[in-house]
């Protein structure tokens, strides 16, 4: 529906390592080595240069994505309505609340309008701050109102520049994480370069600006960097407290800005749990991280007026279960291999059972059903029985929720990222398995420990955490394409760390009996520089071409529809239609909606299914009755949905409705044996014939090549 067209003319790199032991800086007779002061100065210089490079890369990334956005849409030249239409689907819904706060007579009235909103869902008053993660829009709107920038910067630019600015935070966090892991800022440079050159698979911020993940992922990256630092050894108590504070703030901001925060942090909690079970992380620090996750989520729950989806989250149940199970099994990490394996299996089963019991109890007590559609979707996706559930099938049929396409790996391989990632992942996994076996067996034999010295890298808790993190989020990305951005960005960090890590090359060279300290450093930096030169040579011309390509936003049909609604319908009019289109209707016109794309509410899901009967085989009387029950004044029909060809048979919206209604699907192909022919033709097709049963209830008031708008009669 919305398209774009061609625009018309008009070494000190080791500074971040743990503090070296005193023996390296002191002679046997106790005198300070002569180069100690020089080494300190070199470290300070290295950190300064690395910090400047990090800031520069972050700012350049922000400018890069902002330029791509401008070049793709000619955003500075198009009309306000076209700018708003460019915020597609749920992006438009979120941005509409920022616009609403800006246009309110006062901040207090703006907040009151969000807490007592009766325009997002007709005939209902809902609390937007409770239902949706829009505190970022609230904060930005308040800042825009109180800062003296109104005469210099339009509200929309303040909004999008903030999001592009967060990309700088994102890249800097990835850079720092890689630097902390490898000990050299050159590793961070490589991670940032890979992030930029793999932009297609690492971010989509330039064309889905207000999407919740674009707010949340930079804070998630900051949290991972803080956890990586926290898990280092020899931290001073003050450093540890400050780092825990940073972890909490980043976790809180991540949780506040994305409704799927609990599922991402559950995977993170699983990573911590696995590593703790194999004694690869300090238990005290893991406990603090569990508590921080629960505390941040509960604080968000309070700010969201005790949002039911948060209270019933698996994360809270899981973390509470782990802490309870620990108090029950106090001697979990004592004993021989078989003894510990037995205790470990029992511990896992205990945590699993407690998690399910606690979660079931909470949901039963509070009658929570906000996230049931997600579990229905997961059940059907992983083959635990076919389903005719409309909501689950709506997700299953979307490409974004399908398996990760294979061409993703070919794109990642073009930059060498995927090859390096697999190489490092293999080495680290093998070494981690050996170390986990050593920890479980409790072996203290000197010979064995000397042999294990080759695998020192995996004994570092920060490296172990990032290994399990990338494996678990990789599994998530492989199963659900939309979640690949959580994996691919960390893939850049993990691959660059492995390529620039002294320990990795030391391990490889020791295996082939070629290890010397000098040779390790020569190989490490040589391969790093060659990789950077290859990326620059192959992708710099493409980036320059991309930045010089000028296009223009072009969607005349939607612009015409929005202008007609604003000029020809009352401000109080209620509109029904597809979720995606209605988000744009609310943003561009301010009219009341019957449904919208924020799907995390059971009543809204049931309402949406009812509204979508306009694309099913139902009688005009049934459709009219349904629409009027939601106070509908106008209904918008889209040819792109009524005659959809984007999906295959069985996944078109009309097919999902037919299956849910027990009707056979259109077109050639098999149907399940219990499906029956409908007594009525498809509503969205038949209404266009202007037959008498339809004209009694519906009058066409607007039409173009894409949309048909009908006004509902108001019968007594």
From TrEMBL:
Membrane association type: Multi-pass membrane protein
Alphabetical list of InterPro entries matching this protein: Dpy-19/Dpy-19-like, Dpy19L3
Protein's recorded name: Putative C-mannosyltransferase DPY19L3
Compositionally biased spans, kind Basic and acidic residues: 21-31
Subcellular location(s) of the protein: Membrane
Domain of life from the UniProt record: Eukaryota
GO annotations of cellular component type: nuclear inner membrane
Record Pfam families: Dpy19
Sequence segments annotated as region (Disordered): 1-31
Alphabetical keyword list: Glycosyltransferase, Membrane, Transferase, Transmembrane, Transmembrane helix
Residue stretches spanning the membrane: 41-66, 179-197, 217-235, 242-258, 264-281, 312-329, 341-362, 416-442, 463-481, 487-509, 521-540
The keyword Metal-binding appears for this protein: no
Lineage: Eukaryota, Metazoa, Chordata, Craniata, Vertebrata
Comp. bias regions, Basic residues: 1-10
Family: Belongs to the dpy-19 family.
GO molecular function, one term: mannosyltransferase activity
Alphabetical list of CDD domains matching this protein: Dpy19L3 (cd20181)
Coiled-coil features, chain-numbered ranges: none
């Amino acid at each position: 529906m919305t398209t774009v067209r061609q625009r018309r003319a008009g070494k000190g790199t080791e500074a971040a390592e743990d503090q070296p032991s005193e023996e390296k800086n002191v002679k046997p007779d106790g005198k300070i080595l002569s180069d100690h002061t020089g080494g300190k100065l070199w470290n300070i210089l290295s950190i300064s240069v690395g910090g400047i490079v990090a800031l520069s890369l972050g700012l350049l990334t922000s400018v890069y994505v902002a330029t791509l956005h401008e070049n793709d849409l000619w955003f500075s030249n198009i009309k306000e309505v076209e700018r708003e239409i460019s915020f597609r689907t749920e992006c438009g819904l979120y941005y509409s609340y920022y616009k609403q706060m800006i246009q309110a007579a006062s901040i207090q009235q703006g907040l009151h309008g969000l807490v007592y909103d009766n325009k997002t869902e007709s005939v209902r008053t809902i609390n937007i701050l409770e239902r949706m993660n829009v505190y970022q829009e609230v904060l930005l709107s308040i800042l825009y109102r109180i800062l003296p920038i109104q005469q210099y910067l339009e509200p929309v630019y303040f909004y999008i520049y903030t999001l592009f600015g967060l990309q700088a935070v994102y890249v800097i966090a990835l850079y720092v994480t890689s630097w902390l892991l490898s000990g050299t800022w050159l590793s961070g440079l490589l991670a940032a370069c890979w992030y930029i050159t793999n932009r297609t698979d690492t971010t989509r911020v330039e064309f889905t600006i207000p999407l919740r993940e674009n707010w949340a992922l930079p804070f998630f990256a900051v949290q991972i960097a803080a956890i990586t630092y926290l898990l280092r050894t020899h931290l001073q108590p003050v450093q540890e407290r400050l780092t825990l504070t940073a972890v909490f703030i980043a976790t809180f901001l991540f949780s506040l800005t994305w409704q799927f925060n609990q599922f991402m942090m559950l995977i993170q909690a699983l990573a911590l749990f696995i590593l703790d079970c194999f004694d690869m992380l300090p238990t005290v620090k893991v406990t603090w991280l569990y508590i921080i996750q629960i505390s941040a989520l509960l604080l968000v729950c309070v700010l969201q007026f005790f949002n039911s989806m948060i209270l019933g989250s698996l994360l809270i149940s899981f973390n509470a279960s782990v802490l309870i199970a620990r108090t029950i099994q106090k001697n979990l990490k004592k004993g021989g291999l078989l003894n510990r394996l037995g205790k470990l299996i029992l511990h896992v089963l205990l945590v699993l059972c407690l998690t399910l019991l606690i979660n079931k109890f909470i949901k039963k007590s509070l009658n929570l059903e906000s996230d049931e559609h997600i579990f229905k979707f997961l059940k059907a996706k992983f083959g635990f029985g076919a389903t005719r559930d409309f909501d689950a099938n709506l997700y299953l049929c979307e490409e974004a929720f399908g398996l990760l396409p294979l061409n993703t790996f070919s794109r990642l391989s073009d930059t060498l990222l995927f090859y390096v990632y697999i190489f490092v992942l293999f080495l680290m996994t093998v070494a981690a398995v050996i170390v986990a076996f050593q920890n479980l067996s409790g072996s203290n034999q000197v010979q064995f420990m000397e042999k294990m010295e080759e695998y020192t890298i995996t004994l570092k808790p920060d490296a172990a955490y990032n290994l399990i993190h990338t494996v678990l989020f990789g599994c998530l990305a492989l199963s659900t394409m939309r979640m690949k951005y959580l994996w691919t960005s960390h893939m850049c960090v993990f691959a660059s760390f492995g390529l620039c890590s002294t320990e990795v090359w030391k391990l490889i060279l020791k295996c082939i009996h070629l290890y010397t300290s000098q040779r390790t450093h020569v190989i490490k930096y040589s391969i790093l520089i060659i990789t950077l030169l290859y990326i620059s040579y192959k992708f710099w011309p493409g980036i320059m071409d991309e930045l010089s390509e000028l296009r223009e936003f072009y969607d005349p049909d939607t612009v015409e529809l929005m202008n007609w609604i604003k000029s020809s319908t009352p401000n109080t009019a209620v509109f029904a239609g597809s979720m995606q289109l209605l988000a744009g209707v609310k943003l561009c016109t301010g009219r009341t909606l019957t449904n919208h794309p924020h799907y995390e509410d059971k009543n809204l899901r049931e309402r949406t299914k009812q509204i979508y009967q306009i694309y099913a085989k139902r009688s005009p009387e049934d459709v009219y009755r349904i629409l009027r029950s939601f106070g509908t004044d106008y209904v918008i029909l889209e040819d792109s949905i009524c005659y959809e060809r984007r999906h295959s048979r069985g996944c078109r919206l009309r097919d999902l409705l037919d299956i849910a209604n027990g009707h056979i699907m259109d077109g050639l192909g098999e149907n399940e044996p219990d499906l029956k022919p409908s007594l009525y033709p498809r509503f969205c097709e038949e209404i266009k014939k202007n037959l008498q049963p339809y004209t009694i209830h519906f009058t066409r008031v607007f039409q173009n090549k894409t949309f048909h708008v009908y006004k509902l009669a108001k019968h007594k």
